[in-house]
């Protein structure tokens, strides 16, 4: 009886595992990386968001400690996608509206930002190629 119960549990477990996806599609992977990026921005984790920027872009346009300290002067009050489209060789562009509060003056303003995401076949991941948002309009 015990062996029969164990076999049934094993078969049920195998049946459940068979229904699990083997690998994430590019679309699902994009959704996941964009969700992680937007969460990092919303919570003010610009160092974490920086890790999702294409390594080539990070090398060509490195951010300094002063740059990161500027991001600590603001708090994000909102992050909203306004629209998305596919451009070029499969890149995805998203228009974003970000609510920004200056921590010193408590003044709130809205910044529009365009993200551009590129799929890296070699790394099998999506990278942000547009860099972090410019919250100061420079």
UniProtKB/TrEMBL annotation:
PROSITE patterns assigned: PROKAR_LIPOPROTEIN (PS51257)
Keywords: Signal
Signal peptide: 1-18
Protein name (record): Lipoprotein
Organism of provenance: Thermomonas brevis
């Amino acid at each position: 009886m015990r062996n029969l119960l164990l076999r049934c549990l094993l078969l049920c477990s195998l049946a459940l595992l068979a229904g699990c996806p083997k690998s994430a599609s590019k679309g699902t992977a994009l959704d996941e990386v964009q969700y992680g990026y937007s969460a990092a921005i919303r919570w003010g984790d610009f160092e974490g968001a920086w890790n999702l920027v294409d390594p080539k872009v990070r090398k060509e346009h490195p951010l300094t400690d002063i740059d990161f300290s500027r991001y600590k002067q603001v708090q994000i009050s909102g992050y909203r996608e306004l629209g998305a489209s596919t451009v070029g060789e499969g890149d995805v562009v998203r228009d974003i509206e970000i609510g920004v509060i200056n921590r010193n003056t408590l003044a709130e303003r809205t910044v529009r930002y365009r993200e551009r995401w590129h799929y890296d076949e070699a790394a099998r991941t999506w990278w942000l190629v547009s860099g972090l948002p410019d919250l100061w309009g420079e």
